[in-house]
């Protein structure tokens, strides 16, 4: 009986040591990552990005070593915390979400069709953001001014006298 309690205590001590070590490793990793990487990269819907293919990092096949590690341009669809949904330039959605750590901004060459199309998309997005900013102002202008309410109550008072 005493032997079983001793074995259980050793198992618990071992688990505690593993968890403590994992916490230290995480803290060291976070310290290294935050010191060299930008704090937060935020992409907006419609921006062009490339996706890093990390599956090629540790390949031993000669043919795969020469494949590009960055994908063709893709377009951001939406953001969910620190990950993004993307689509091809043709508008076909790509399955899954992609961490912002695997994305980098793609800037097309000036004078290409992609550059012209991207400028049009970004102008439309800016115009849409301006319209969204103006919508609350219009809602506030629909409320009647205070003097109109005073006139209406004055009319009611005149009707009571007659």
Task: Name the descriptors.
single chain, five-stranded antiparallel β-sheet, 4 helices, elongated, disordered C terminus
Task: Describe how the helices and strands are arranged.
Blueprint: H1 2-36, E1 48-51, H2 62-65, E2 74-80, E3 83-87, E4 98-99, E5 103-105, H3 113-141, H4 146-161
Antiparallel strand pairs: 1-2, 1-5, 2-3, 3-4
How would you describe what is shown here?
This protein is an alpha+beta fold. Helix content is 52%, strand content 13%. It has four helices and five strands. It has a five-stranded antiparallel sheet with strand order 4-3-2-1-5, with no helix packed on it. A hairpin with a 2-residue loop joins strand 2 and strand 3. The protein is elongated.
Write a concise synopsis of the structure shown.
The chain is α+β, with helices and mostly antiparallel strands and 162 residues long. The chain has helices at residues 2-36, 62-65, 113-141, 146-161; strands at 48-51, 74-80, 83-87, 98-99, 103-105.
> How many angstroms does the end-to-end distance come to?
102 Å
**How much helix is in the residues?**
40-55%
H/E element sequence: HEHEEEEHH
Unreliable spans are 148-162
Structural class of the secondary elements? alpha+beta
The strand line-up of the biggest sheet is 4-3-2-1-5
Number of strands: 5
Compute the average pLDDT. 82
Most strands sheet = 5 strands, antiparallel
Question: Which value, in Å, is the CA radius of gyration?
Answer: 30 Å
Name the shape in a single word. Answer: elongated
Give the strand content. Answer: 5-15%
> What is the tally of helical segments?
4
């Amino acid at each position: 009986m005493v032997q079983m309690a001793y074995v259980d205590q050793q198992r618990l001590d071992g688990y505690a040591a593993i968890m403590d070590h994992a916490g230290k490793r995480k803290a060291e990793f976070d310290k290294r990552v935050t010191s060299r990487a930008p704090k937060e990269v935020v992409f907006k819907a419609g921006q062009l990005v490339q996706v890093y293919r990390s599956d090629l990092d540790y390949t031993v096949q000669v043919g795969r070593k020469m494949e590009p590690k960055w994908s063709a341009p893709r377009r951001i669809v939406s953001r969910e915390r620190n990950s993004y949904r993307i689509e091809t330039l043709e508008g076909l959605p790509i399955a899954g979400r992609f961490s912002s750590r695997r994305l980098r901004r793609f800037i097309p060459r000036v004078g290409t069709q992609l550059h012209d199309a991207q400028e049009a998309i970004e102008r439309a997005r800016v115009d849409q953001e301006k319209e969204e900013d103006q919508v609350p102002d219009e809602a506030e202008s629909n409320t009647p001014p205070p003097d109109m309410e005073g006139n209406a109550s004055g009319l009611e008072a005149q009707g009571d006298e007659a």
